[in-house]
């Protein structure tokens, strides 16, 4: 009796399998504790500010202007999430998608499965995205619930929350794709990733001319004023980004970065021969 | 015919060194390993670019009288130089320090190290010296070099005589940066088996504390909360060392206490984590 021939799973099916396997690994790891700390501290800070406010203390000011909850929320989303958590989580998870398997010498087991090599990267990338979004976005919602009632209304600011969640999700997706390339290509991806976010991106934003267009931060942080709930803070942000890109321009550029870099990372993984150190 | 080697037990024929010298071997080996990496040498060279820039500045300030106004060398130049080097200190700490203990833990080498006639303090001291050596190479060594070159370019000791405090200030300032960075990184390195995780924890500690300070100072409109940031504490202490007005409203004593607490906690973590045998209940 002849066995029916089994076809190799499609790229989508294989990616989904890798996604299912990787999601569990990522969620129940010590990294999630680190991520919890990164996103938990802003929640703690929001709680302290709220208690400070409930105690009747006044004096919460930004640039010597008395501010309300929506403005504080805008500042916290920008300072903690858009400027810090998103790039750091992107570099941490993005660079480790393939580098972890190489370091643990387990990439051989993945590559010997009858699936396209690209599926390994895509599945792991999707797991990273799901894992970070499930942890980061709820913490933003918690900060919003704690801070907005200080002089603002939850209903009136709900749309701004959705915009902020969208910005953070887009940031995680784009940074993850950029660092997936670095992780797939370089031997010491983390240091290069850190140099990119804390060296290159910080420097080019300060350079005159068009240099800033060579960073993800320019497009991502440029989105922030569009979601700012408070006019005064929005104007402050507009002043910081003297020539912010348009909303459509930012989104389109980030979509291109995402597709190009993810495709490039998948191509590297498919073609590269990973030599495991003994 | 190939020789047949005797594989039976043989007594150790080498010299026996008394306990207390092994740290040197660990330090030497660590330094040699880092110097063999081209990427690290590139980073080290890159960290010296500001030194070259400062040397050019010193040359023009003394050789071109027209430039002496806006390129003037004073005590602030040395303080600013040390502050600029903090970027390289960060990258150097991450590159060199992240894997110092984590890689040994990953390879289960800690037990092998501590099975030798060597104290735990020697192991920690050796590892610490690897990181501290390279950090001193980008802070203290160029700082002293700049002082020497300033004297050489000027052709007299007037500048040094007028700013005699710069010699201990550069030394103490560099040592504060190196001590805090080295101990913090080494403690974090002992907490994990993954050097990447260690690197990201250190990055988080430095930049998240800075972001926390930035947000708190904006919200409360005061720099009294600067003690929450590791970087701000270092800046405040070094400002005082260089006899400058402190840039934050927080008392310098508190900054010193925070930095001391960081070092003490790091030593305590190292004491608990660096053990030859891990007893599991």
Short description:
Chain A has 278 residues and is mostly helical. Chain A is built from 10 helices and 2 strands, in the order ααββαααααααα. The longest helix of chain B has 26 residues, at 166-191.
What would you note in describing this structure?
The complex is a heterodimer of chains A (278) and B (281). Chain A is mainly α. Chain A is globular. Chain A has one domain. Chain A contains ten helices and two strands; from the N terminus they run H-H-E-E-H-H-H-H-H-H-H-H. With 281 residues, chain B is mainly alpha-helical. Chain B has one domain. Helix content of chain B is 70%, strand content 0%. Chain B has 14 helices and no strands. Chain B has helices at residues 22-35, 38-47, 49-63, 75-84, 86-97, 102-106, 109-114, 120-138, 140-154, 158-162, 166-191, 195-220, 230-241, 252-273. In chain B, helix 2 runs antiparallel to helix 5 (86-97) and helix 11 (166-191) crosses helix 12 (195-220). Chain B is globular. The termini of chain B are far apart. In chain B, 38% of the residues are buried. The interface between A and B is medium-sized, with 37 and 26 residues.
- Work out the strand percent of chain A: under 5%
Q: Please report which band the strand proportion of chain B falls in: under 5%, 5-15%, 15-25%, 25-35%, 35-45% or over 45%.
A: under 5%
Helix content of chain B: over 70%
Mean pLDDT reading of chain B: 89
Structural classification of chain A: mainly alpha
Question: Can you write the helix and strand succession of chain B as a string?
Answer: HHHHHHHHHHHHHH
* Secondary-structure element string of chain A: HHEEHHHHHHHH
Task: Report the C-alpha radius of gyration of chain B, rounded.
Answer: 23 Å
Subunit organisation of the chains: heterodimer
Report the biggest beta sheet of chain B as strand number plus sense, adding barrel if it closes: none
């Amino acid at each position: 009796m002849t066995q029916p021939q089994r076809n190799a799973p499609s790229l989508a099916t294989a990616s989904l399998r890798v996604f299912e396997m990787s999601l569990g690994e990522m969620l129940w790891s010590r990294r999630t504790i680190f991520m919890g700390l990164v996103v938990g501290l802003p929640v703690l800070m929001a709680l302290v500010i709220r208690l400070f406010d409930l105690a009747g203390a006044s004096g919460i000011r930004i640039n010597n202007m008395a501010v309300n909850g929506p403005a504080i929320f805008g500042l916290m989303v920008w300072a903690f999430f858009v400027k810090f958590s998103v790039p750091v989580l992107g570099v941490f998870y993005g660079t480790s998608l393939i580098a972890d398997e190489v370091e643990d010498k387990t990439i051989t087991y993945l590559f010997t499965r009858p699936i396209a090599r690209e599926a390994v990267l895509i599945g792991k990338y999707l797991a990273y995205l799901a894992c970070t979004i499930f942890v980061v976005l709820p913490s933003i919602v918690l900060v919003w619930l704690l801070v907005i009632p200080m002089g603002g209304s939850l209903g009136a600011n709900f749309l701004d929350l959705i915009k902020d969640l969208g910005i953070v999700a887009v940031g995680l997706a784009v940074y993850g794709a950029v660092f997936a390339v670095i992780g797939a290509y370089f031997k010491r991806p983390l240091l290069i990733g850190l140099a990119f976010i804390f060296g290159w991106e910080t420097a080019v934003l300060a350079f005159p001319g068009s240099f800033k267009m060579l960073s993800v931060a320019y497009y991502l942080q440029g989105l922030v004023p569009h979601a700012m709930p408070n006019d005064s803070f929005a104007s402050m942000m507009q002043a910081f980004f003297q020539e912010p890109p348009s909303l459509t321009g930012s989104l389109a550029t980030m979509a291109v970065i995402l597709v190009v870099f993810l495709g490039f990372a998948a191509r590297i993984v498919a073609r590269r021969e990973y030599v495991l150190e003994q | 015919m190939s020789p047949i080697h005797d594989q039976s037990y043989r007594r150790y024929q080498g010299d026996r060194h008394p306990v207390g010298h092994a740290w040197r071997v660990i330090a030497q080996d660590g330094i040699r390993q880092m110097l063999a990496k081209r990427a690290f040498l590139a980073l080290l060279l890159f960290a010296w670019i500001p030194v070259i820039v400062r040397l050019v500045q010193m040359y023009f300030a003394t050789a071109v009288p027209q430039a002496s106004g806006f390129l003037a060398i004073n005590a602030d130049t040395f303080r600013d130089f040390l502050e600029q080097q903090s970027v390289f200190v960060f990258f150097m700490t991450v590159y060199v320090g992240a894997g110092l203990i984590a890689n040994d833990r990953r390879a289960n080498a800690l037990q092998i190290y501590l099975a030798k006639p060597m104290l735990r303090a020697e192991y920690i001291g050796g590892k610490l010296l690897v990181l501290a050596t390279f950090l001193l190479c980008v802070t203290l060594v160029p700082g002293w070099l700049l002082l020497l070159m300033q004297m050489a370019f000027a052709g007299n000791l007037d500048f040094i005589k007028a700013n005699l405090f710069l010699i201990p200030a550069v030394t103490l300032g560099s040592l504060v940066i190196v001590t805090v960075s080295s101990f913090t990184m080494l403690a974090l390195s002992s907490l994990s088996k993954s050097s990447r995780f260690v690197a990201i924890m250190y990055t988080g500690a430095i930049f998240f504390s800075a972001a926390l300070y930035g947000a708190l100072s904006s919200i409360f409109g005061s720099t009294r909360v600067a003690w929450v940031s590791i970087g701000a504490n270092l800046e405040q202490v070094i400002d005082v060392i260089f006899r400058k007005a402190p840039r934050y409203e927080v008392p310098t004593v508190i900054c010193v206490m925070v930095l001391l607490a960081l070092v003490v906690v790091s030593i305590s973590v190292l004491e608990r984590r660096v053990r030859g045998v891990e007893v599991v209940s």
